[in-house]
Amino acid sequence: MRGKQQVEEIPMFEMIVWSCTNDVCKGWMRQEYSFSAEPACPLCQSGMIHETRLLPQLSHYIGS
Ligand SMILES: [Zn+2]
Predict the structure, then answer these.
(1) How far is the CA of 42 from the centre of ligand 1 (A)?
(2) What are phi and psi of 31, to 5 degrees?
(3) I want to staple 20 with a disulfide (CB 3.0 to 4.6 A). Which of 11, 25, 38, 60 is the partner?
(4) How far is the CA of 11 from the centre of ligand 1 (A)?
């Protein structure tokens, strides 16, 4: 028998990301993953702009 599933609240943080300028494209990447001053979208090769997004903080998951 399993315990009831826990609904974990994932803390969200504002992060600056690169976002694709192409309206129909959902491409984006975290700023720290881009090594170029003006990266191109990995999906459609369009230009990218800085944008603030709310993202879950993934680096602080400690499994139990
Ligand atoms: Zn794109």
Answers:
(1) 7
(2) -60, -40
(3) 25
(4) 27
Please list the residues that pair with 13 across neighbouring strands. 55
DSSP state of 1: -
Tens of pLDDT, residue by residue over 38-60, are 899 999 999 999 999 998 876 55
DSSP codes joined into one string, 9-64: PPPEEEEEEEEES-TT---EEEGGG--SSSPBPTTT--BEEEEEEEEE--TT----
C-alpha 10 – ligand 1 centre gap (Å): 27
Task: Name the residue among 8, 9, 7, 10 with its Cα closest to residue 59.
Answer: 10
Cα 37 to middle of ligand 1, angstroms: 16
